Amino acid sequence: MSCDFLALAQPGVQKLSPYVPGKPVDELARELDLDPATIVKLASNENPLGPSPKALEAIKAHLDELTRYPDGNGFVLKSKLAERYGVGVEQVTLGNGSNDILELVARAYLAPGLNAVFSEHAFAVYPIATQAVGAQAKQVPARQWGHDLDAMLAAVDGNTRVVFIANPNNPTGTWFDSEALERFLSGVPERVLVVLDEAYIEYAEGAELPNGLSFMAAHPNLLVSRTFSKAYGLAALRVGYAISSARIADVLNRVRQPFNVNSLALAAACAALDDQAYLSESRLCNSTGMRQLETGFKAMGLDWISSRANFIAVDFGRDAAPINQSLLRDGVIVRPVASYGMPTFLRVSIGTEAENARFLEALRKALGH
Ligand SMILES: *Cc1c(COP(=O)(O)O)cnc(C)c1O
Known about the structure:
Elements: H1 11-14, H2 25-32, E1 40-41, H3 53-61, H4 75-85, E2 92-95, H5 98-109, E3 115-119, H6 125-132, E4 136-140, H7 149-155, E5 160-166, H8 178-187, E6 193-197, E7 222-227, E8 240-243, H9 246-255, H10 263-274, H11 276-299, E9 303-305, E10 311-315, H12 321-329, E11 332-333, E12 335-336, E13 345-349, H13 353-366
Parallel strand pairs: 1-11, 3-4, 3-5, 5-6, 6-7
Antiparallel strand pairs: 2-8, 7-8, 9-10, 10-13, 12-13
Helix pairs in contact: 3-10, 4-10, 5-6, 5-9, 11-13, 12-13
Keywords: Amino-acid biosynthesis, Aminotransferase, Histidine biosynthesis, Pyridoxal phosphate, Transferase
EC number: 2.6.1.9
Protein name: Histidinol-phosphate aminotransferase
């Protein structure tokens, strides 16, 4: 008789299903016997322009250090981040992607009997991080696809230790303004850690989206997490960071793996941070591409959720799976979001002008236009 090692897993883990990423280009190329170069992938919100050339140079310059452990304290990158954002080095925590930050928070602050509050249609990693440590995930119904911050506030109870909020949110692209954030932060009990996930904040233009960092002085229970995976184009290297009070950073560093960010990632992130011109170019590419897709959707009579990130969720008003299949056959990979409770939508990352055009063409075909 053999044991059932699923049944032996802790109850929160048994209820999870593995994270499903966007389909890799090589996988589709193998399945359809296509040249990978002809495939367009708009599925994982990566920067279609790739990383800054300066980041690539920095990686090459550090290749001969691969035999050594990286700087476990990430001194140079932390100093650069601290300087850029006007915070102390002791307020910065580095993560192996910002996913790592979310897990550090869960490991440090959640446990069986405690809970984390987050929104319906929010990032898939929130329930994973929460349930993995045996805590309860309290999912609050969304309002017009976005966070219902008042309802989330009402969901906070005596056992709540963490609230995850994303601005803009993935996969919906929805956002909230300064006033809403301030009202929320003022209402949350001081002992609840608010994780403000700003993975896409670099795409926000103008004052429409609040900069979470400016709320930290008044709200010491706020942690802002950001990443080099999206606008900075370094998704494969896995580097993200949190800015919080020094106290919270100290706690996170107690559960952090000693060498969680590798040396190539550290070097590339420093160079990327210094190349703000490249970031502006990436932002411009995104806003132009967003308009291109919206115009295309409009011409096809489709609805979408207005987005302030580098992706857009388009609604077909019926099961989107067959449309996704048709796009795949045409060598176009986008992201089905049925697992996010959005079966009639597909999430499309903004690509280059040519990639967006390829996608729109394939979509027209898929819809029989
Ligand atoms: C992509 C994304 C992240 C960042 O993931 P990394 O681990 O930094 O690559 C975090 N939060 C949200 C909402 C995201 O969409």
